[in-house]
Structure formats: structure tokens, C-alpha cells
Write a structure and sequence with these properties.
By secondary structure, the protein is an alpha+beta fold. About 25% of the residues lie in helices and about 20% in strands. The strands form four sheets. Strands 1, 2, 3, 7 and 10 form a five-stranded mixed beta sheet that branches. The longest helix is centred in the middle third of the chain and has 30 residues. The radius of gyration is 44 Å and the shape is elongated.
């Protein structure tokens, strides 16, 4: 009688039966390399194990499928491979082989309904922080209007296009007049040697001692005519080629080419000069604070921002103005998508003119005539349809060109209950500006209500603590003496 040898499994056997565990009479396969299935001696053949009840139930066509697989057809999966991976992952997680949180690929019906909706996007800017207008002009039918103002069109082009037009204008004019000079030489017979030999005896019979005279000397091909065209238009004058008095047409072409060359030089050089000295280049050193603030000033809510100039050269006759851009609707039902409303500015100088020597805090008092009259901290979020545009204009002192700097503030870029820190200090008899704190703000006590509510109920101000007043800082610098007094030894 052959004694059966039992194989001891490497791992511990799980307690209890699982849905996917084998039948009680089957051996657990060893992980130590003992083989698969039940161990059997040589020469003895065992019958195949009976299929599990789970497999028999799946094979029956009359047993209803699970609910998750029944509803699989409701969702649309983009690729076939993704669909197969989703089915396999769902089946493995359902049988308990892998946890459900490790299934990365899911079916379309597993995605909740609330996840299919995207959050509301931020309001598009009308004017960017750098001053660029966010407007795209489309479907312009009358394109010829741009050609009526060629100079402005050339200045507005980008630098690669401008340099390409600059180069091609000279090359095309040189080639065109080079062809004209070649045609004059060809019509006069300057390129044919036989014509020269025939005309020289005739001119000798007339008493001319110089023989054949061409229209332009030293022109033998189109290359020499092209070189002569460059010499004429650029006024180089090497001395090898020149126009003679033989052909009046050549003299006329010489005059026309000189005039055309001067016009091209004036237009292209003027265009490049205007591009290098455009007004918005000076606006790069006119800076605005990144955020605007709303706080109390003289007992009233004020909208404030800070503006400064980094250059020592001043902006003459500088003016600043603000506009509120928002979507409005009239009483008749007309919807204005970008309604521009002017708001009155207040500054230390008075009026809209400012003396921009040091950074200034420009503020607007929110009163009953202000479009910000009903604005509260609740409205300062990125979903609010509100944009405040700030425009600074002035004349550059060094060049005399009018410049303009622009910026804008959305609703979430307005800080409620804060004010700007002072950045001007007195040092050694002069005022110094610390631009590292240009946009820094500090919190101050401010009521969380609209200007309308504050005006109707002044008792709110009684409960507000007063903040310390900001003054100009004065730094005391100790100067070292340049000499010392010592007693001489006796």
C-alpha cells in the first residue's frame, strides 16, 4: 500500500471559507514549488474537480447578471481597451481579490452625476494687468482701410514682419531698377559687341573721335546692371560705372530712382524709429499695486490703489481716471455686456491731475453716486461681474511723447478692510522710497457692510475701534566724525 505524502503549505490558511476559496476536499496549492492542484502518487489518475457552484451559476443563461453589469450599457466608454479594463477591475473587486479602492479604471456609470459638471470659470478680463486689451476683432470685411494708413499699419506690425518688409522693399527696388537699366543697355546695343563694331565707323565718319558711347559704361550683363542700380540708390559711387549723355532716358531713370530711394528711406527709417520710441515703452516703468483695497478714510468707505513711477524723469500733466466695466441691462430690456461707467477720483493734489514724483495713493469715495455703493465683502469673489479699469496718461518729459499706462482689478483682487503701508521715509535731509513694500497692506478695522448701509446707520461707526494714524517715518543716521582731537604728549 502506497502511503500518501502530505505537502505543508508555506503560508497560513485563512480562517473560514471565502467566496473564491476552493472546495473543502481540495488541497491548497503550495507556494514552495510543490505544483498545482492536489498531490497524487505516480501511476494513479484522479478525476477532474467539479466546477464550483459560482461558476455553474455564471454559466447558466437564465440567472440574471449583477446589477452593475446590467447597467453597464447606460454609460459610454471612449475606448475598447478602457472598457475591458473597467470590466476586469470591477469583476476582481467584486470577487474580493483586490480592494475596490485600488481599481483605477472605472466604468462610466460609476462616476457620480455631480462630478460631471465643471465649476464656473473666472470672469474674463477686459484689460489685462499689463495694460493689454483683451479684445479680438473678427469678421472685418473692409480690410482695405488698413492700407489707406500704411505708416500706422507698418508701425503696428510685429518686429519680424517689419524687418522683412524693410529688407524686401530695398531688394525689390534694386531688382526693379536693375531690370530697367539692363533694358536701356539692351535697347541701345551696349550688350552686343557686333553693334558696337558697326557704329564705331559711322561715328568716325561724323568726326567723333571717341567712337561708340554707351548709355551706361561698364554694363555687360544683368549682374552689372543690378550692381549699378545699388550704387545709384545708395549713392555709393565706386567710379567704374556712370551714366553718359548719350541716352536721355537713362538720365530720367536716374532721377526717378533717386526720388524713389529717398521715399523708401524716409518711410522705413521713420517706421523703425517710431517702433523703438513708442509710448507704451515708457509705461513699463509706471507701476500699479497688484491689489486694490477698500477701507475707511475720514469716516467713509474708500476704494484705494497705489501708483508710482520708477524713473527720475517726470510725467508732465499726468492725469488718472477710473472706469467700472460690468454687464448691465436697461429698463427696456437692452443688455449691455461691457458698460463703462466713469467714477470720480480723489487724490492729494485735487481733481484728476497728479504730481507723480513719489508713489501716491489714489482713492475714490464710495458715496451714493458711486457704482460701488452696494458692494460688500460678500461680493468680492471671482464669480462677481465687476472690473475696475485704471488709466494713467501724461507727457514724457524727455521725449515729449504722450504715454498711457493701464491696469485693471477684478472683484477678487480687491481687499476689504486693508490699507497700504507707508513707504516714504526721510533720510539725511531727503525723502527715500522703499519699493519693496509698494504693494504691502495691513488689516484695519472696517465695517463689513455696504456704503449704503453705513450711511443709513451711522451707529456702526461707534463700535469700530480706531486704528493708529500713519506718519512719515524719520530715520536718524549717526554720522561718524571725520577727525578726532587728541592730547599731544608733553
Amino acid at each position: 500500500m502506497v502511503k500518501e505524502k502530505k505537502v505543508k503549505p508555506c503560508g497560513k490558511r485563512p480562517r473560514g471559507r471565502h467566496r473564491s476559496s476552493p472546495a473543502p476536499h481540495a488541497e491548497v496549492p503550495s507556494a514552495c514549488g510543490a505544483g498545482l492542484g492536489r498531490w497524487r502518487p505516480r501511476g494513479r489518475r484522479l478525476a477532474a474537480p467539479a466546477p464550483s457552484p459560482l461558476r455553474r451559476r455564471r454559466a447558466s443563461p437564465f440567472v440574471p447578471r449583477p446589477r452593475r453589469l446590467r447597467e453597464r450599457g447606460r454609460g459610454r466608454v471612449r475606448g475598447g481597451a478602457e472598457r475591458r479594463l473597467g470590466v476586469v477591475g470591477a469583476m476582481l473587486s467584486r470577487k474580493g481579490i483586490i480592494p475596490e479602492e485600488y481599481v483605477l479604471t472605472r466604468l462610466a456609470e460609476d462616476v457620480p452625476e455631480h462630478a460631471r459638471y465643471r465649476a464656473r470659470e473666472r470672469r474674463a478680463r477686459f484689460v489685462g494687468k499689463n495694460g493689454a486689451c483683451n479684445v479680438a476683432h473678427k469678421n472685418i470685411r473692409e480690410q482695405g482701410r488698413f492700407l489707406q494708413d500704411v505708416f500706422t499699419t507698418l508701425v503696428d506690425l510685429k518686429w519680424p514682419h517689419t524687418l522683412l518688409i524693410f529688407t524686401m522693399s530695398f531688394l525689390c527696388s534694386w531688382l526693379l531698377f536693375g531690370m530697367v537699366w539692363w533694358l536701356i543697355a539692351f535697347a541701345h546695343g551696349d550688350l552686343d559687341h557686333s553693334t558696337r563694331l558697326q557704329r564705331e565707323p559711322a561715328r568716325a565718319a561724323e568726326g567723333a573721335s571717341d567712337g561708340f558711347v554707351p548709355c551706361v559704361t561698364s554694363i555687360h550683363s544683368f549682374t552689372s546692371a543690378f550692381l549699378f542700380s545699388i550704387e545709384v540708390q545708395v549713392t555709393i559711387g565706386f567710379g567704374g560705372r556712370m551714366v553718359t549723355e548719350e541716352c536721355p532716358a537713362a538720365i530720367l531713370v536716374l532721377i526717378v530712382q533717386n526720388i524713389v530711394g529717398l521715399v523708401i528711406n524716409a518711410i522705413m527709417l521713420g517706421c523703425i524709429f517710431m517702433k523703438t520710441s513708442q509710448a507704451h515703452r515708457r509705461a513699463e516703468t509706471l507701476i500699479f499695486s497688484k491689489h486694490a483695497v477698500i477701507a475707511l478714510r475720514e469716516g467713509k468707505l474708500c476704494f484705494m490703489l497705489r501708483v508710482g513711477d520708477l524713473r527720475k524723469s517726470m510725467i508732465i500733466s499726468a492725469t488718472i481716471r477710473m472706469q467700472v466695466v460690468k454687464k448691465t441691462a436697461s429698463l427696456e430690456g437692452e443688455v449691455v455686456p461691457l458698460n463703462q461707467i466713469d467714477i470720480q477720483m480723489e487724490n492729494p493734489v485735487g481733481g484728476n491731475s497728479i504730481f507723480l514724483v513719489s508713489p501716491l495713493i489714489i482713492y475714490h469715495v464710495i458715496d451714493k453716486n458711486s457704482p460701488l455703493y452696494d458692494i460688500s465683502p460678500v461680493n468680492l469673489h471671482h464669480h462677481e461681474d465687476l472690473e475696475i479699469i485704471v488709466i494713467l496718461e501724461g507727457v514724457v518729459e524727455t521725449t515729449g511723447i504722450t504715454t498711457q499706462a493701464r491696469t485693471s482689478y477684478l472683484a477678487d483682487e480687491i481687499l476689504w478692510g486693508q490699507r497700504f503701508v507707508p513707504i516714504v521715509a526721510e533720510e539725511d535731509g531727503r525723502y527715500s522710497v522703499d519699493y519693496s513694500k509698494f504693494g504691502n497692506t495691513v488689516k484695519v478695522p472696517t465695517p463689513s457692510c455696504t456704503a449704503r448701509q453705513l450711511e443709513e446707520d451711522r451707529s456702526i461707526m461707534d463700535t469700530m475701534p480706531l486704528s493708529p494714524k500713519g506718519t512719515i517715518r524719520k530715520r536718524s543716521v549717526k554720522l561718524k566724525p571725520k577727525f578726532t582731537i587728541t592730547d599731544e604728549p608733553s
